[in-house]
Amino acid sequence: MSISQDAVASFFQNFAASSNSKDTPSEISHFANVFVAAGPAGSAVVKVEDFEKVLPKRRQLLEASGLVHTSLKSFDITAATDRHVVVNNTWEMDFETQTHGRVTIPVSATFTIDMATDTPKVLVYLAHQDILQILRDRSMLAGT
Hints:
Layout: H1 5-21, H2 24-28, E1 31-39, E2 42-47, H3 48-64, E3 67-80, E4 84-97, E5 101-114, E6 121-127, H4 131-137
Parallel strand pairs: 1-6
Antiparallel strand pairs: 1-2, 3-4, 4-5, 5-6
């Protein structure tokens, strides 16, 4: 089996739509039952049922900080097997606040995705930046 660019594009289109939908079950449907989440602050093995509990709180915090939309800007397959792809992806997070006006913050991540089924799953989510720290540094994080 060869993984097509179109299959990866379809995954990211669905992922982006879910991210903006505020529909937690739709968002978590893109993740394996257990996945690795990593970023500047460290890493953890995450059970999807635990992720389902914290995702709405994170979304509320980001929205309280002014998040209005997240857009996929690009993705690049950097490695692939017959089953898995490693994909660098870049996003723009649009915030709007009375204090700061409209602010676009670029972020990026690397995903390892299991593409073996009709519903691909993220196995590894590696955030290149900590969006909460970026917001904190810009005095944009709600409640700080």
